[in-house]
Every structure is written in structure tokens, then in C-alpha cells.
Design brief:
The structure is a single chain. The protein has helices at 11-18, 24-39, 47-63, 75-82. The protein has one domain (11-82). By secondary structure, it is mostly helical.
């Protein structure tokens, strides 16, 4: 028999990943994105699988996806432009 982990609301993982979420609207927007794009209708076979896939998703989201609100840059590109 296999134990399944169903990931419904990723608040613990988001808190760990983003350490300082000082705007609740930003946090809620990120929860919605993760719930609708990452975990919708998925069942993870283990916590390790969930952790690995969530790490990959956040890496992809931060490094490869461009955001209109950031001048069509990825978050990492925007950070480099803003702080240099």
C-alpha cells in the first residue's frame, strides 16, 4: 500500500521559500498561482516528490517566466536590473 500526500494549501512551503512575505496580497496571489498551476488535481506519492517538484516549479517561475508587471522580465532578471 502506498501512502499519498495531497497538497492542498502550500502555506508552510511558501513561508519557507519566501521567508519575508510582508504583503498579504502578494502572499495570497502566490498561493493562488501555486494552487492553480502547480498542484491542481495532482497527488504526490511522497513528501520528497512534492519538495523536489515544488523546488523545480519555483525555480522555473523565478528564472524563466516573464511577468508583465516586471517589465516583461523574469523575477531574477528584474532583481538584477533593479539592484544594479
Amino acid at each position: 500500500m502506498c501512502n499519498y500526500v495531497y497538497f492542498d494549501y502550500p502555506s508552510i512551503y511558501i513561508s519557507i521559500l519566501f521567508n519575508m512575505l510582508y504583503d498579504n496580497a502578494v502572499a495570497e496571489a502566490m498561493y493562488k498561482i501555486i494552487k492553480t498551476e502547480f498542484v491542481f488535481n495532482k497527488i504526490f506519492s511522497s513528501l520528497d516528490e512534492l519538495s523536489t517538484l515544488l523546488f523545480d516549479y519555483v525555480n522555473w517561475f523565478n528564472n524563466f517566466i516573464i511577468h508583465g508587471s516586471l517589465g516583461y522580465l523574469s523575477p531574477i532578471q528584474y532583481k538584477h536590473v533593479a539592484f544594479n
